[in-house]
Amino acid sequence: MGDLSETCEIKETHKISAVIFDLDGTLLNTEQVTKGALEEYLAMYGKVPEREREAKRLGMTQREVVSGIIKDYDLPVSPDRYIEEILPFYQGKWKLTKPLPGATRLMGHLHKQGVPFALASNSIRINIDRKLSYHEGWKERFAVILGSDQVKSGKPEPDIFLEAAAKMNVDATDCLVIEDSVVGVKAAKAAGMKVVAVPSVQPEMDQYSIADSVLHSILELQPEVWGLPPYDDWIDNVLQVEPIFFKGFYTNGLLHEFTGDIMSVLPTQVFGNFIGWAKINSSKLLKILVKIGWENSNCSKRHIEAYLPEDDENLHDSEMEIVLLGYIRRSNNMETTNVLGILDEDKSAAKAAFYRPEFSLDACKSLFQQNDE
């Protein structure tokens, strides 16, 4: 399997000239937000989705997904009728999508450095444009945007990646692909490209063995490993990230996520050490450092530890609303996030960061207000 974290040494390969992104589950948390759409639709026909069956459709083209669902659930509709009926269920949720950790940062960095990048998705083009319309400035930055309906065959065939490279006028072997699905990884390798997998289904990470590198989050990506310009946006040992909101129940140093509201659950790709603020009893705000990892090697259960630097009262068995604002850089292998215990070096980095305006109480107050509106 590819490494779960990247080495700082430049790989013995030629320099990457362009990057190609997948969209759903790679740049946007689309799959998390739309999780209930199929369930709502199937309920009209008295059917219930089967989790294992649906997981296997990750990364498939719309045509494959539609025909498979109609067959598997014995639906009395044609493919065209199915699309017409289910589309409103998805469209209502697309506007709620948010960038996954590190996505906006990486695209902004590549754009600033003059590195061309493309979007190649198994969604059809009209749906890609709809999803991008909710994220200001995104569409304009892509040198090329392709959907599966614009090439002969979608992923796992290499057509869409080869077409993206051709339109950017770069050789396929000079491209780096960022993907979240096994289907997409297979397509990229078939195109002769380098590929970094950031699985959206963490318990299946062992299936990504053909990828050149396997990461838990785009935040772990080190551009210099691939011959690309390095980042220059670290604030000492902490990186400012787009706000990540979730709700949890705090007890004995651990946080247990609320799973009732899908919008309050952390995306799978949130991994590592983060600083932020916790709102207790809908009013009191406290600084918090959280360590987000997995309890076992097959990543089947999330593990969240919490450290409250200013815990001056008994907060055990407390409900918390949390906003994460910063990501702590680690010099060692990120896989150590699976080891129990928050390290003193991370506590020190967190305490120092809270003195900066980017991670201050004032910054967090306005964010909580915006999230509540």
UniProtKB/TrEMBL annotation:
Pathway: Cofactor biosynthesis; FMN biosynthesis; FMN from riboflavin (ATP route): step 1/1. PROSITE patterns: COF_1. It comes from Cuscuta australis. Keywords: ATP-binding, Flavoprotein, FMN, Nucleotide-binding, Transferase. It holds the Pfam family Flavokinase. This is riboflavin kinase. Its EC number is 2.7.1.26. GO terms for biological process: FMN biosynthetic process; glycerol biosynthetic process; riboflavin biosynthetic process.
